[in-house]
Amino acid sequence: MAIFNKENIKFAKSWIKNPKRMGTFLPLSSKVGKKMIHSMPKVSDNGLILEIGSGSGALTEFISSSNNADKIICVEIDEELCKILQKKFPKAIIHNKSASKFNEYIPNDILNNVEVIISSIPFMSVGKTITKEIITSCVDVLKSNNGVIIHVAYTPFVPFASYGMKKVFCKSVWGIPMTYIHCYKAI
Ligand SMILES: C[S@@+](CC[C@H](N)C(=O)[O-])C[C@H]1O[C@@H](n2cnc3c(N)ncnc32)[C@H](O)[C@@H]1O
């Protein structure tokens, strides 16, 4: 796919408006998406996948290629990117909201079935309060479901251990910039 397509231009516009929240001006590459999906555990028949910070759906495409789209719940704060997600993944549940305290608006009967959380929230730049609110909500869900979070970032440093989470693995994807696929579980 060409780098300067409509979707990527919208993504870059969102970055110009709010660089700290976006973290990057281009969506994650398909190389990263492929490695992420190979690292992701299989979900059960009733299991669901919660993706936080879905952007324009670069990772969602890979998640939906190996799981039914109606198993995916996306949370994305940027309204323009949500419109792209809604068009591309009409069967997914899409929340145009902050992932902070997502457990206050996603019903329990859905959260109880979330087995994997996929994140690409730029924790290094969104600030401590938002990071804390997002990760504590993730810990609550993962603890009761014995699930994992897969977090994709351009840094090997992630804050999950400070919230009592245990590292399962960290895989690197070579390229510029280097990308890291972190997997943690709540204990
Ligand atoms: C690094 S981009 C990754 C986008 C996409 N997942 C990809 O694969 O390219 C981070 C995304 O997280 C979103 N984001 C940042 N803070 C958020 C928050 N508090 N709640 C929900 N989404 C957030 C941004 O709007 C952006 O789309």
TrEMBL record:
PROSITE patterns: RRNA_A_DIMETH. Keywords: Methyltransferase, RNA-binding, S-adenosyl-L-methionine, Transferase. It comes from the Bacteria. Gene3D superfamilies: Vaccinia Virus protein VP39 (3.40.50.150). The keyword RNA-binding applies. The keyword RNA-binding applies. It holds the Pfam family RrnaAD. InterPro entries: KsgA/Erm, rRNA_Ade_Mease_Trfase_CS, rRNA_Ade_methylase_Trfase_N, SAM-dependent_MTases_sf. This is Methyltransferase. It comes from Candidatus Cytomitobacter indipagum.
